[in-house]
Amino acid sequence: xxxxxxxxxxPLVQHKLTIMRHTDTPTAVFRQLLREISQLLAYxxxxxxxxxxxxxxxxxxxxxxxxxxxxxxxxxSILRAGNGLLDGVLELIPSARVGFVGLYRDEExxxxxxxxxxxxxxxxxxxxxAVDPMLATGNSSVAAIDLLKKxxxxxxxxxxxxxxxxxxxxxxxxxxxxxxVTAAVDERLNEVGYIVxxxxxxxxxxxxxx
Length: 210
Ligand code: URA
What we know:
Elements: E1 5-7, H1 11-21, H2 27-45, E2 51-57, E3 62-68, E4 73-79, H3 82-92, E5 97-105, E6 112-118, E7 127-131, E8 134-135, H4 139-150, E9 156-159, E10 162-163, H5 165-174, E11 180-182, E12 184-185, E13 188-189, E14 195-196, H6 202-207
Parallel strand pairs: 1-11, 4-5, 4-7, 7-9, 8-10, 9-11, 10-12
Antiparallel strand pairs: 2-3, 5-6, 13-14
Bound molecules: uracil (URA).
């Protein structure tokens, strides 16, 4: 993937995102739409996966048919909101290994604090797709990718639903080698690090917490 930022401007993605943003959208609908959008985003983030061919018989003839080259994939959910994206992506790529990075945001400093880290072995051999719906300040995304690189990952992509310009800039500065795929880039962050207009707290909206 050569571009640092890919915005998936597909009509279905944009339509579903608008419903998700709406204040009145209930948890169950939000969750279902996140699952659907994550599959459409997964389609884009895996667009250039390595391919090979294999000889197969069809009922009519033999052919050399395209198939994935089998490069190992790791999906890394940045807890807890990452799990909402993870579920949909896993439905599309069921053989992927899965890891979790637990970071919470200190509400005063806005800095990430690590509380969990469990990832598949041999990250250095894998395409690693880190998922987190909201790229806001970029602090937790940068910290999560720092940890993944420390664990050996060198081929990383970042998949999110919404991004703020500040978060994109921060990621580009810290990890210029990590392409970002998102459904939209919003206007700005507010004074407490939330994306505006955004959709509120993604974790709260998908899990029905406050
Ligand atoms: N995390 C969220 O869930 N929402 C934001 O707007 C920013 C960070």
